[in-house]
Amino acid sequence: MLHHLEYIIDRLNTHPEACGEPAGAHLAVAIRRALDADMPLLHDLAELDSAKPLEGPALVAVVEGVIWAAVGLDDGRVIADPFLPTGPAVELLALRVRQLRAAAGAPRRGLRPRWTARRARA
Fold first, then answer.
1. Of 48, 85, 44, 89, which is closest to residue 71 (Cα–Cα)?
2. Does a structural domain hold residue 74?
3. Lowest mean pLDDT among 13-17, 28-32, 42-46, 81-85
4. Tens-place pLDDT, residues 91-107
5. CA distances in angstroms from 83 to 4, 31, 71, 87, 113, listed in the order given
6. Whole-structure pTM value
7. How far apart are CA 35 and CA 122, in angstroms?
8. Is 122 among the domain residues?
9. Which residues, listed in sequence order, are joined to residue 66 by a DSSP beta bridge?
10. Residues 32-53: tens digit of each pLDDT
11. What residue ranges in the chain does DSSP mark as E strands?
12. Looking at the 3D structure of the chain, how many domains does it have?
């Protein structure tokens, strides 16, 4: 009898870590700025995560049309759905925040108009 119970438990219990790919590894993640229409969803996500809602501008990680995680651009706080495999999405959000901060801190190297360059030589 015990052998049968173990067999049933093993059949019903999926082990994503035993597979070659983690759960959700094949899903595409889109990183974008949060829109005004996303604010109620972000509030619900924060409540689900037992966290305060994000304030100010934010980036969201969208998987199959659903927001899985978000990060506040002002304070760097992260909220994520605790019932989904959001680790990779949160890592992508952190990477994008670092890229945006690096771009904001780097001096912009724009092209000067030719007439400005000629005037400077004169």
1. 89
2. yes
3. 13-17
4. 999 999 999 989 888 66
5. 30, 20, 17, 11, 54
6. 0.67
7. 49
8. no
9. 63
10. 999 999 999 999 999 999 999 9
11. 29-33, 58-63, 66-72, 78-80
12. 1
Model confidence at 17: pLDDT above 60? no
Q: Reduce the secondary structure of the chain to three states and give it as a string.
A: CHHHHHHHHHHHCCCHHHCCCCCCCCCCEEEEECCHHHHHHHHHHHHHCCCCCCCCCEEEEEECCEEEEEEECCCCCEEECCCCCCHHHHHHHHHHHHHHHHHHHCCCCCCCCHHHHHHHHC
Q: Which residue range is the domain that position 96 belongs to?
A: 27-104
Look-up: residue for tokens 């067999």? 7
Query: What pLDDT score does 91 carry?
Result: 94
Q: Give a yes or no: residue 42 inside a domain.
A: yes
**Residue 5 belongs to some domain of the structure:** no
| Pairing status of strand 29-33 against strand 58-63 | antiparallel
CATH of the domain at 75: 3.40.630
